[in-house]
Amino acid sequence: MTMVKDIDVRGMQHCETTALGVLLRHEGLDLSEPMLFGLGSGLSFIYWDSKGMGFPFLGGRVKPFELTRNLAAALGLELLVGETTSPRKAWQNVAGPIDAGRPVGLQLDSCHLDYFSTKVHFGGHVVAMYGYDEQDAYLVDTSPQGGAVSTSLASLARARAERGPMTAKHRSFTITAPSNPTSPQDRITPAIKTCAEAFLNPPIANLGHRGIEKTARQVTKWLQRSDNPQEDLPRAAVLMEKAGTGGALFRNLYRDFLAECAQLIDSSHLRTGHSLYTEAAALWTEVAALIATAGQSGDAKNLMQAGSLLHELSRIERDAMQALGML
User: Fold this and answer.
1) For 182, how many CA atoms within 13 A lie in the half-sphere containing its CB?
2) Cross-referenced Pfam families, in alphabetical order (predicted)?
3) Exposed end of the chain (fewer CB within 10 Å): N or C?
4) SS3 assignment, position 148
């Protein structure tokens, strides 16, 4: 058995921040989950629907691994990324650092992991790996998935080799902190402004505040859009509230990030942003509940109400990001 020593196997709410937390704590940098998410400019919004999809997708964060790249750049960390089509090389990319006493981050498809509670394909899942033996790999996943967990080496190989939406080619990564790392406090304002700029000026109408406005128009049709609304709508609500989002489609995490920042930086713009995201987070939870109820009851009134709240959310989040952009 090969194990990295002194690993803090604390699971968090979201997969990518959980893995980042494990890798950074091993480098002596212990940041809260909201701070990891915020410094990585993680908040976003996407509404996606196409003829090939069974049901629309709502996303509340930047695409997989972008948060990791953003965070590494913000803090001046050395991020080494391995990708390959060769399963043999992929294993070497993981075993090498672990043998040398360093945990490794992995992007994979969670469907194949032995311990995973929901067996659906998601190729953007991220875990930290800190050990292995002849049969199993030892991982850290989110708290809802069990924190410190294990899966067979065969299942891990399948998860890493899977191809499809959001998958990567056996992606693995390590992080090294410099001897004098950038102060996280110094990177708060640039990270917030980067996030605000992207949210306020999306390249297409499916993203940012424009994407929320589009969702407001489309959600009222979801009973007709679905072949099985009793399953599809409650599942969409669960993905918004659970599924590693920290609740409220990642808005709880960003609200808590802004609250933590307001303790460090005296800014009326920051306080305004925090107040508005506190309001937004509560409304997103309400929207999810209305969508679930609509699916269970078949009553479109719930979706009309959800649409009204989403119109309001588009405005609230736009106002919040405009305030934060003035930091």
Assistant:
1) 16
2) BtrH_N, DUF4872
3) N
4) strand
pTM above 0.90, yes or no: yes
- Cβ contact 133:150 at 8 Å: no
Buried b (16+ CB within 10 A) or exposed e, 127-155: bbbbbbeeebbbbbbbeebeebbbbeeeb
- The values of phi and psi at residue 61, to 5°, are -140, 170
Rounded Cα distance between 26 and 174, Å, is 11
> Angle at Cα 216 formed by Cα 210 and Cα 221, nearest 5°?
130
Q: What domains can you pick out in the chain, each with its CATH number? A: 2-30+78-176 (3.90.70.10), 184-324 (1.20.120)
d(CA 128, CA 36): 15
User: Is 56 within 8 Å of 218 (Cβ atoms)?
Assistant: yes
Report which of 111, 106, 104, 103 is spatially closest to residue 169, judged by C-alpha positions.
106
User: What's residue 182's pLDDT?
Assistant: 87
Residues 107 and 141 sit within 8 Å (Cβ to Cβ): no
Q: Are strands 136-140 and 148-152 parallel, antiparallel or unpaired?
A: antiparallel
Q: How confident is the model at residue 92 (pLDDT cuts 50, 70, 90)?
A: very high
Cα angle 245, 253, 193; round to 5: 120
Whether 172 contacts 79, CB under 8 Å: no
According to DSSP, residue 245 is labeled: S
What whole-number distance in Å separates Cα of residue 291 and Cα of residue 61? 20
Distance of CA 36 to the CA centre of its chain: 11
**C-alpha distances out from residue 11 to 115, 141, 308, Å:** 14, 6, 36
Is residue 140 within 8 Å of residue 150, measured between CB atoms? no
Tell me if residue 44 falls in helix, strand or coil: strand
126 close to 19: Cβ distance less than 8 angstroms: yes
Task: Return all residues near 193 (Cβ < 8 A) that are at least 6 apart.
Answer: 324, 325, 327
DSSP state of 170: S
**Rounded Cα gap, residues 244 and 240, in angstroms:** 9
